[in-house]
Specification:
Rossmann fold, six-stranded parallel β-sheet, six-stranded antiparallel β-sheet, binds zinc ion, Quinone Oxidoreductase, Chain A, domain 1, 2 domains, 11 helices, globular, alpha/beta
Length: 343
């Protein structure tokens, strides 16, 4: 399809100010220098999207969806290396390219330029525009549906790495939403023994199928007894963070991934000091980690059929599935297929 064959309007799922989701006809994005237009095959529904829909992140009407795979249908001026028909997934924002985090290969930490391509740029739509520099090629043999997991998997890979997890370690994952579930898969693939703490029964059961050795229902205590070398904290809850730190082995690390807006856990400084405990954060991913996520999906080592819900949803079915995801009734990643899904 050449640029002149493209339609002028497309279907997009617009999240209004009040969180209502409505399918609308909107203009197909116009390409600037360096841009590519991608026909969306699949796009995940993520916790950040749920916060938008719940009105906890308000930016006016917006098309959500950032965990996408698709096919390039047109490229703007000055784009090299990409042609229509290329199968792609979208990676991290590009950053300024000159500050210390950018030079270290972590442009997601750049604060010089607004990072492009984050939440809100809109893949719950037939097409999306993206800076071609953000694209990664989907290798032959990896289907676009599975490739849509790359973004969430890259987040989990970085979090596990920042925790320093090694084969044979005991690891705890608190909160088995989609990032927690992928952290379980990454840790199990690494050869760590994984315990999960998660209130939803369907998610606990799924975590066991994905490779967790035990799944704990938080009751009087949120966290089962350790000691754990690594905690990957995905719940965002203050009580969980505080208890999880106490379950770490000496020299252990807790990685905060669940953002928990306004969460201010209280840690005992003496205990942290005497046990050489590390508490750190992890957000998004580097370009290298995004490439690793694609390679890990292509390797076939992860239980993709357990990580993805079997039934994709169309744009007009998203509104009905959001409350079920918010209540923890769905264990796997739900994918939106704006068309019928591409190959
Ligand atoms: Zn996401
Ligand atoms: Zn920068």
């Amino acid at each position: 399809m050449s640029a002149s064959d493209l339609p002028s309007a497309m279907a997009a799922l617009v999240c209004r100010d009040d969180g209502t989701l409505v399918v609308e006809r909107v203009p197909v994005p116009e390409l600037g220098r360096g841009d590519a237009l991608v026909r969306i095959s699949h796009c995940g529904i993520c916790g950040t999207d749920l916060h938008h829909v719940a009105g906890r992140i308000g930016h006016g009407p917006v098309v959500l969806g950032h965990e996408y795979s698709g096919v390039v249908v047109a490229v703007g001026e000055d784009v090299e290396g990409w042609t229509p028909g290329d199968r792609v997934v979208g990676g991290p924002g590009l950053g300024c390219g000159a500050c210390p985090p950018c030079l270290a290969g972590t442009p997601h930490l750049c604060r010089v330029e607004p990072v492009r391509g984050g939440a809100g740029n809109g893949s719950w739509a037939t097409f999306r525009r993206v800076d071609a520099g953000q694209l990664f090629r989907v290798p032959d043999g990896l289907d676009l549906r599975t490739a849509a997991l790359a973004e969430t998997l890259a987040i989990a890979l970085r979090a596990v790495r920042r925790g320093g997890a090694r084969p044979g370690d005991r690891a705890l994952v608190t909160g088995a939403g989609s990032i927690g579930m992928l952290a379980v898969a990454v840790l199990a693939d690494l050869g760590a023994g994984v315990t999960v703490s998660e209130p939803s029964a369907v998610r606990r059961e799924r975590a066991l199928r994905i490779g967790a050795q035990e799944a704990w229902e938080p009751g009087a205590t949120a966290v089962p007894d350790g000691p754990y070398a690594v905690v990957v904290e995905c719940s965002g809850r203050v009580d969980v963070m505080e208890q999880a730190v106490g379950s770490l082995a000496r020299g252990g690390t807790m990685v905060l991934v669940g953002i928990g807006a306004g969460a201010r856990p209280a840690f005992d400084a003496r205990q942290l000091t005497l046990t050489e405990t590390t508490v750190t954060g992890s957000v998004d991913y580097s370009r290298a980690e995004f490439a690793e996520a694609i390679a890990l999906l292509a390797s076939g080592r992860l239980p993709v059929e357990e990580l993805l819900e079997p039934d994709d949803v169309s744009l007009d079915e998203v509104a009905a599935v959001v409350p079920r995801l918010t209540r923890g009734e769905i264990a796997g990643k739900v994918l939106v297929a704006p068309g019928a899904g591409l190959r």
